[in-house]
Amino acid sequence: MKKLGMDLNSFILDQERRYPNATGSLSRALVAIESAVKVIASHVRMAGLVDILGKAGKTNIQGEEVQKLDELANNLMIEYLSSSGEFFALASEELDEPIFPEEGKDAKYVIAFDPLDGSSNIDVNVSIGTIFSIHKRVNSDSSDFLQEGYKQVAAGYVVYGSSTMFVISTGNGVNGFTLDPSVGMFLLSHQDIKLPEKGKIYSFNESNIKKWEPQSLVSYVETLKEEGYTSRYIGSMVADVHRTLIKGGVFAYPADTKNKNGKLRLLYEASPMAFLITQAGGMATTGKEDILNIKPTDIHQRVPVFLGSKKEIQQLLSFINNG
Ligand code: AHM
Ligand code: MG
What we know:
alpha+beta, Fructose-1,6-Bisphosphatase, Chain A, domain 1, D-Maltodextrin-Binding Protein, domain 2, 2 domains, 7-stranded mixed beta sheet, 5-stranded mixed beta sheet, 8 helices, about 30% helix, about 20% strand, binds magnesium ion
């Protein structure tokens, strides 16, 4: 039974109990992510102080080497996820090739993640996040990452914002947990999140408007303006998608004349976000197909992304399809 205030660990165990044949492996995998992101969150909170505390070049006050926050987040994810023994392979935005941890030889899952999304926002104290996507191990090689998004076993993100929130789906709706820093626990604060059918916000980087493909997107955005929509764009996908999940509307990163497949990465940005948005009753498309139906061909491939409330995405598709 879920109730507000329940902590994430109890929630994970509670979900596991629903499946009599569950071995506890997914639960332990999720707890490993939770531990990693708590440590990342504590470093994010210190972000502006690192230079002060670590005056002597690249060494901090304890004599440890000061790492850039995105490198640190990547190393923490690798350390916690590998040592959990629950992952056969790890793919990260920060790594050219996947890692196959020694401890995960018999593990059932593979995980793709973006350890610190929105890293251009770190220096200016704006929300950033961690995104992850879990699939079952099937072939026991890198091709396990090339499974469609609808086959995700779990997906989620953590937003390091005015508070730290962990948003997760295991295919059974979407729930959000807010970190209570005084006890170090994520507590259920947003139960069974559903996107409004229609929102009032569009979230595009409009500076690219002249290059957008297809050009019909320009008239789509003009129409939204005429209909009274307002614009919000943070430039951290996690934060922009989080707002879209809660308030509805549309978030997009289209293809353009320079970037034929857009900017965002399928495996650890578009696909997990599409899973969450769809689980919450919204839609996620490239403009041509449902993001969750794409069969990946490359671990780091990019795709155009349009996601949000049903009303906005349907309207967008009619603009695209009618040119
Ligand atoms: P990153 O993973 O290197 O941080 O890049 C991805 C980020 C997303 O968080 C965000 O949606 C997008 O890049 C913003 O791009 P732009 O600055 O072109 O609007
Ligand atoms: Mg990213």
